[in-house]
Amino acid sequence: MSKLIDDFREYRSRMNEKILGSDNKVMKRIYSVDTLAYQEGALPVKTKEMLGLVSSMVLRCDDCIKYHLEKCHEQGLSDEEIFEVFAIANLVGGTIVIPHTRSAVEYWEALNEQEGVNSKN
Q1: pLDDT tens-digit series, residues 91-106
Q2: What is the 3-state secondary structure (H, E, C) of 26-93?
Q3: pTM of the entire structure?
Q4: Distance, CA of 96 to CA of 27 (rounded, Å)
Q5: DSSP for residue 75
Q6: H or E, element range at 1
Q7: I need a surface site. Which of 44, 70, 82, 119 has the fewest CB within 10 A?
């Protein structure tokens, strides 16, 4: 597995355990609302994840970008689709989003490489 992906997943998991382990009711509810928001509804999950990715890129949250890239990858987005999402994010967010797009491309490539490795096993 790519070190980039592995490091992100491990850090996110470890820190989420600490946050949720604090037993803070508000934090638990925020996490719950977030989970519920991305479930199938009037909009398909794929669309919601693309919206989440654009929003994360415009807000310049690299952790959120990686998370939504993983979810978009799980939803089967093609390279062409993901680059259209990147284009919308850069259009809405402006050129300040370009460095985050670079990181997003790197992470997307790592996800694709990981899939290639996993499909050979």
Answers
A1: 999 999 999 999 999 9
A2: HHHHHHHHHHHHCCCCCCCHHHHHHHHHHHHHHHCCHHHHHHHHHHHHHCCCCHHHHHHHHHHHHHHH
A3: 0.91
A4: 30
A5: T
A6: none
A7: 119
